[in-house]
Amino acid sequence: MNICRISRSSTFKLCKKEITSQPLIFYRNTWIVKRKYTPPLSRLSAERPRVLKGKHFIYETIENTDDTPPPDLHLVLTTFVEGIGDVGDIISVMPEYARNDLLLPRKAVYATPENIEKYSIKKKSREERPKFSSIHAATIIRSLSKIVIPVFMNSENPWTITKSHLHIAFRKEGFFIPHDAIELPSSSVEGPDLAMEGRDFAVTVTINNTEKVPVRCRVFYIKKGMETAILSEEDYLEKNEPILAEQKELLQSMPMPEIVDDPSSSVSLIEKYRIKYIE
């Protein structure tokens, strides 16, 4: 019989090591495996089952639930959520975003038959109108209110800015604005006037015949040999003098563009979080 004696100093070291070590974090996990070598079957008349060899305890991994992404959750929206949907809409969404941004703030509930019936009735019977004309209206308003639309004009021939000029300018910046949704300022903007280059004026854009948002436009002249030149960030980030004096207060109150370092912030929520709509 072997007896091991631990001194007081070694006991202290063991206790100290146990106290200062990092705590273990336990979580539930599942491994699905199969035997690499099929074990032999025992005879029905055998008194004891056959003893398995070491190779019969070698397993191959079929699936590890840590490597399998969790399935999307089905939710019912309980209120209007910008960029996603309105009350009563049934959506499928990534579980992390669903729990942190929809379930915890009580903007959505699980899509059980009871909740689907409850909020579909609420959507039909509510008296107040939605906050916006569509789920993307607020996002479009925020984008248009911070953008600077460059309007390129001729530096030699006389011109007056029309809706067609602005329609083309918006289209070059990635916005398709129909002519009837553009409202020109009360005073006309005419040129050419070299002192007008780099100065601002505002137009009003109507979204879905409901929301109106003022948009900052900036005049630039097309110079010979520089038709394909690209404007620098300094041409967009600072407030310039207004072309029309009556728009000075409006232009001063409008925000300016911001430099965005994270490219994912420009991606819609529907694409970013795999949101799908369920009928």
The gist of it:
By secondary structure, this protein is α+β, with helices and mostly antiparallel strands. It has helices spanning 8-20, 95-103, 113-125, 137-146, 163-172, 234-237, 248-253, 269-272; strands spanning 31-35, 59-64, 73-77, 90-93, 108-110, 148-154, 159-160, 182-183, 190-191, 200-207, 211-222, 276-278.
Explain this structure to me?
The protein has 279 residues and is an alpha+beta fold. Among the domains are: 73-129, Ribosomal protein L9, N-terminal domain (Ribosomal Protein L9, domain 1, 3-Layer(aba) Sandwich), CATH 3.40.5; 137-253, Roll (Ribosomal Protein L9, domain 2). It is built from eight helices and twelve strands. The chain is 25% helix and 21% strand. The strands form four sheets. The chain has a four-stranded antiparallel sheet with strand order 5-3-4-12. A hairpin with a 3-residue loop joins strand 10 and strand 11 (211-222). Mean pLDDT is 82; it is low at 1-19. It has helices spanning 8-20, 95-103, 113-125, 137-146, 163-172, 234-237, 248-253, 269-272, and strands at residues 31-35, 59-64, 73-77, 90-93, 108-110, 148-154, 159-160, 182-183, 190-191, 200-207, 211-222, 276-278.
* CATH fold descriptor of one domain: Ribosomal Protein L9, domain 2
Q: What's the architecture of one domain, going by CATH?
A: Roll
The CATH top-level class label of one domain: Alpha Beta
* CATH homology superfamily of one domain: Ribosomal protein L9, C-terminal domain
Largest sheet: 4 strands, antiparallel
pLDDT under 50 segments (min length 5)?
A: 1-19
Mean pLDDT, all residues: 82
User: What percent of residues are in strands?
Assistant: 15-25%
Strand order of the biggest β-sheet:
5-3-4-12
Organism: Parasteatoda tepidariorum
InterPro entries: Ribosomal_bL9, Ribosomal_bL9/RNase_H1_N, Ribosomal_bL9_N, Ribosomal_bL9_N_sf
Family: Belongs to the bacterial ribosomal protein bL9 family.
Pfam families: Ribosomal_L9_N
